Amino acid sequence: MAVLSSGGKDSCAAWWWATCRGWDVTVIVTLVVEGDSPMFQVPNTLLAREQAAAAGVAWDHRVIDGEEGPDFEALESMLIKHDLDGFVSGALRSDYQRNRLERLGEKLGLRTWTPLWHQRPIDHLRGLAAHGFDVLVTSVSAEGLDEAWLGRTLDAKALDELEALSKVHRFNVDGEGGEYETLVLRAPMFPEGLDLSWTSVWDGRRGHLVVN
Questions:
Q1: Residues 6+ apart with CB under 8 A from 210
Q2: Is the Cβ–Cβ distance between 179 and 171 less than 8 Å?
Q3: How many Cβ atoms from other residues are within 10 Å of residue 104's Cβ?
Q4: Model confidence over 39-95: pLDDT tens digits?
Q5: Phi, psi at residue 167, to the nearest 5°?
């Protein structure tokens, strides 16, 4: 079993879902995007390597430019290297993402799972906080989310504030529209957590963390 992971909250939640079912996750697969992508998270995805190492799981990756077509060629080249029966992803509501992954699974004869599909967004976030996930906000690009959100952990208090802001400014509370990106610093799969440092980059409207 492979997990497609950017290191963010949704792919880590899907990874946890697989482990809770007793499945043997043998590899974490990451596409590292240099540029933009409608499909994959961009910032800090190389840090999925640190999560995999902390969990004692193999990690594989390819560097891509985000262009549709070559992105899945790179993903396919990784998946066929490993002895797999299927893969898990953290797709939430994007039919574009889910359909492309399911077609790839059919092509390779692999089962696909999207366990977070259409979960209620705020319940999904609160469930992660309640089960020991330390979710770090690594980028923000929505009205209502200022520089103070960079480097903040989505604990219960932060989620109350995030939910209120999402209602006022009408953005997706789970960041599904790219309003913010995340990195998981601690999870049940790697309870010791990651020891990282970072600096903030802010242009007055949006920003991101450069994580070491």
A1: 198, 199, 200, 201
A2: yes
A3: 16
A4: 667 678 899 999 999 999 999 999 888 677 788 899 999 999 999 999 999 988 888
A5: -75, -40
Nearest to 46 by CA among 207, 194, 205: 194
Hunting for tokens 């961009």 — which residue is that? Answer: 42
C-alpha radius of gyration, the chain, whole number: 16
Taking the domains of the chain in order of start, what are their residue ranges? Answer: 2-113, 132-211
- For domain 2-113, the question of CATH label 3.40.50.620 is answered with yes
Q: What ranges in the chain are assigned the alpha helix state H?
A: 9-20, 48-55, 70-79, 95-108, 121-130, 156-169
Distance CA 127, CA 73 (A): 34
163 Rama class: left (phi>0) / alpha (psi -120 to 50) / beta: alpha
C-alpha 150/C-alpha 49 separation (Å) is: 22
CATH architecture designation of domain 132-211? Alpha-Beta Complex (3.90)
Same fold, 2-113 and 132-211: no
Element (H, E) at 182: strand 180-186
pLDDT, residue 37, reads 67
Q: How far is CA 92 from the centre of its chain?
A: 11
Tokens 């529209």 correspond to what residue? 177
Which tokens hold the place of 171?
């953005």
